Amino acid sequence: MLRGSYTMPASQFKIFVFTVLFMKYDARQYTEPILIAYPIVAVVYVKVEELILKLQFWLVYVCPWQITWGSAFHAVAQVCSVPHSALLTLHALVASITQAPFTPFIGSALFLTSYPRPVKFWEKNYNTKRIDHSNSRLSSQLERGPHSDHNNLNSVFYEHLTHSLQKSLAGDLELGRWGNVVAGDCFILASDYLNALVHIVEYGNGILTFQLRGLEFSGTYCQQREVEAINEGADTSEGCCCCRVGKINGVLSFNSAFNQRWMAWQVIVSNYVLDGYNISDNNATTMLGVFDLRKILISYIVKSVIFFLVAHDSLDSWITNDSIREQLTSCEQPDYVDVDSMFAVAIDDDYDVWLFGISRSKFTQVYSSWIDYCCAQRAATKNGANYSGDTKLTTLCFAISVLARRALGTASHNLSSNLDSFLYGLYSLFKGDFRITSNKDEWVFTDMNLLREVVAPGVRMALKLHQDHFACPDEYDQHEPLFTAISDYQTTMVITHEGDPMWRKAVLSNTSSLLALRRVISDMFVDQYSVITLNHRALGFNVVKVNRECVRGLWAGQQNELIFLRNRNPERGSIQNAKQVLRNMINSSCDQPIGYPIYVSPLTTSYATTNQQLNKVIGGPITFEAVKTCFTNIIACLRQSCSGSCNSGGSGGFPQDQVVQSIPMVNIPPRNYSNEPIPLHHNYRLANESGANVTSFTNTRSRHGSAISGEKKSLESRARSSISSASTLRKSLETSSRMNKDALDDLPSFSAIHSISGSSSRSNSTSDNPSKMRSVSRSEYSRSRPKSAASVAAQSSNSSCSVAQPGEAGARAAS
Q: DSSP characters for 696-747?
């Protein structure tokens, strides 16, 4: 019961309802509790459900209006199966009780009971061994033979798809995106080129074990017909039997609904998104079929080799290497020419028709500007020496470009004019097969990094640039976009051979873009070359749920036919397409030698906690680290809240600054933006003499700037308006707080400050000595403020303001 609650959660309520109804009505005479009958009803429920699935598979398979006969025997067996329908039903009952597959005999309408076997298959080592350069013989990598298998190369995409499913499948099942799922269910993921069967081996509480079986990319005719049946969707006809009565919007017609019910599969999700690669396959024959296109490729090879040579960290050592310089002494001559039958005017830009070869002068004329640009970029980025115009670097670039083209001609068997030979030579250089046969090129053995890190990546980069040429032919005519493109591709794109282990590592690590040159031997033993471009993006799949008894029955039938009956005909009738049961796709996904999947994953476990969308809905897993983090956050939140509410009316529990009433002041004159700021020093002293306020201040005159009379008048008018507002506030303070005489005595100081602002602008009319102080008369001060009782008393008692000391009055005024 506990196991079934986790493996079949959607069926538990049905089993419980049947148990209650059985104990309450059918078994009223028994007094056993429901817990005793619950396991028995659960077993019976599972057997009945299995019987229903077997009968559905049988009826859909033999229905006469959609059966496809693969041979004459199938036509005869179709008629003979009708009078034995009762016997076939008994076979289905026995197969359900013994948990055995219900198999079609040789793919016909006659069904037999196979031997019992568990729902979960006998496990074996399903680790698919992918053949690459790390586990194959060197001779198989170099020799020209039928060693390349595109199915082996395509298997890495199903391996990547398995990793994507491992991250999200368990969570998606918890979210109900694949419907009700139990152990043993089979699903088909169908897209434009990726078609795989997903077998649910075990399903528990937040955990899932599954296996993925990838089918061929370019499958047989039968497989393509079944994929089209999945993608075409439901029929949109409006017929009802033989009549045309129309249909209701949003509802299938009678004929469409009838056809959908007579299928052993059902589309569960029409756009299930997974991380994958968009594969673009371009025929290399059309890309290089014309001599002009080959000439462009050779030009890109030379420029790419020069780029990687100049950008290499070992350029300084290569230029100063005595061994390399000694072997390239002849190439330093301005009139040097390399005459070789591999070079031709039809494919080489720097071919000298008068000298019948590639001359140094012609090479310098064509590629010197590109060499200088690369040197300038190297000097700007690496802060190294600038080799622009250096003859030693030009000689090295000339020698290595000739080496790359001679290696291409050698790999092409000196038949560069022949397209097939040229493609094979390009493919050999692309995978790193460089064969140095000329004495002129033996200097490269001084440092093999010249081949591995300069020539090989240059050839691969040239293929990508040549592919971009078709999108924008004139884009790389200028040096800047060409240099930028090579630099970007070098960091963001993986360009290598598919047999290189780095290719598989890049695919499984979700590299954004990849490019490779593929060679495949066709059935007619003809070489086919294509440029494979991969772009990482989200892929949409149709998720199809297949009757699990249909899958078990077809697999068991193929085992009986191939192993026991020895029928090894590749075009046997039992594997022909049958759209109602997807017979060809299911039989192809069986283990070898029964089927022929190109990839079978090991038993892979997926956890619901790795699904990000599920974690956003129900939260992440409960771990000790998560509990610790949550507890720490709660304590920090409580400490912050308590410290902020300790004092009533306070903020944060800290002593607050005294709130001081601020009175609007006049704007300070704008600063003189000369070389030196104007220093202004204001010192104030407040004294209370005979009940009146006496303000003393000093103002240090500035040495810089000049005040404008118009600006002075505007400042004085603004000061008067501010002083009037200050006097109004003073009256209100006198009414509210007569006991606080100190506050009343401080109010005139604000007016004094406004007067100081005005007087600072008038400082230009006085003496230029900065150390001399000027005393402001009381009458001048009184004219700048309204007449009040306090001001009149102050006017009668004091006629002038005394000079304040910086130590006492200045500090008091600042406070």
A: EEEEPPPSS----HHHHHHHHHHHHHHHHHHHHHHHHHHHH-SS-HHHHHHH
Report whether 214 contacts 599 (CB < 8 A): yes
Residue of 242, 225, 231, 172 lying closest to 203 (CA atoms): 172
Residue 54's nearest CA partner among 99, 118, 106 is: 99
User: Which one, of 507, 302, 491, 517, lies nearest residue 431 by Cα?
Assistant: 517
The answer to whether residue 576 scores a pLDDT higher than 50 is: yes
| CA 267 to each of CA 274, 275, 368, 427: distance values in angstroms, whole numbers, following the listed order | 17, 20, 62, 42
Q: How far is CA 125 from CA 50, 120, 166, 202, 641, in A?
A: 29, 15, 19, 17, 59
Length of the chain: 815
Tokens in use for 522?
A: 């066709």
CA 631 to chain centre: 34
- The single-letter DSSP state of residue 249 is T
Structure tokens at 360: 């140094």
Instruction: Say how many C-beta atoms besides its own lie within 10 A of residue 692's C-beta.
Output: 19
Which two tokens mark 439? 């004495």
Lowest mean pLDDT among 44-48, 390-394, 445-449, 785-789: 785-789
- The amino acid present at 163, given as its one-letter code, is H
CA distance 699 to 756: 8
Average pLDDT of the chain, as a whole number? 77
CA 798 to chain centre: 84
Is the Cβ–Cβ distance between 545 and 187 less than 8 Å? yes
Pick the closest to residue 214 from 736, 598, 744, 710 (CA basis).
Answer: 598
pLDDT at 235: 66
Q: How far apart, in Å, are the Cα atoms of 673 and each of 289, 676, 704, 707, 762?
A: 73, 8, 10, 14, 18
- CA 271 to CA 277: how far, in whole Å? 16
Give the HSE-up count for residue 396: Cα atoms under 13 Å, Cβ half-sphere: 30
577 and 125 in contact (C-beta within 8 Å)?
Answer: no
Q: How far apart are CA 428 and CA 408, in angstroms?
A: 8
Q: CB neighbours of 133 closer than 8 A, spacing ≥ 6?
A: 141, 497, 499, 500, 501
Rounded to the nearest 10°, the torsion over CA 234, 235, 240, 246 is 100
Give the angle subtended at the CA of 751 by the CAs of 748 and 754, to the nearest 5°.
155
pTM: 0.72
Catalogue the E-assigned strands of 564-613.
599-600, 604-607
Reduced to 3 states (helix: H, G, I; strand: E, B; else coil), residue 248 is coil
Compute CA distances 340 → 280, 361, 425, 592, whole Å: 37, 17, 17, 52
Residue 634 CA to residue 620 CA, distance in Å, equals: 18
| Cα separation, 164 vs 606, whole angstroms | 10
For residues 346 and 802, what is the distance between their CA atoms, to the nearest angstrom? 103
Range from 7-11, 234-238, 808-812 carrying the lowest mean pLDDT = 808-812
Assess whether the previous peptide bond of 457 is cis (omega < 30° from 0): no
- On whether the CB atoms of residues 784 and 719 are closer than 8 A, the answer is yes
The residues, any chain, with a CB within 8 Å of residue 433's CB and separated by 6 or more, are 141, 142, 411
Task: Say how far apart CA 615 and CA 668 lie, in whole Å.
Answer: 60
722 vs 229, residue with greater confidence: 229
pLDDT on residue 430: 92
- What whole-number distance in Å separates Cα of residue 260 and Cα of residue 232? 12
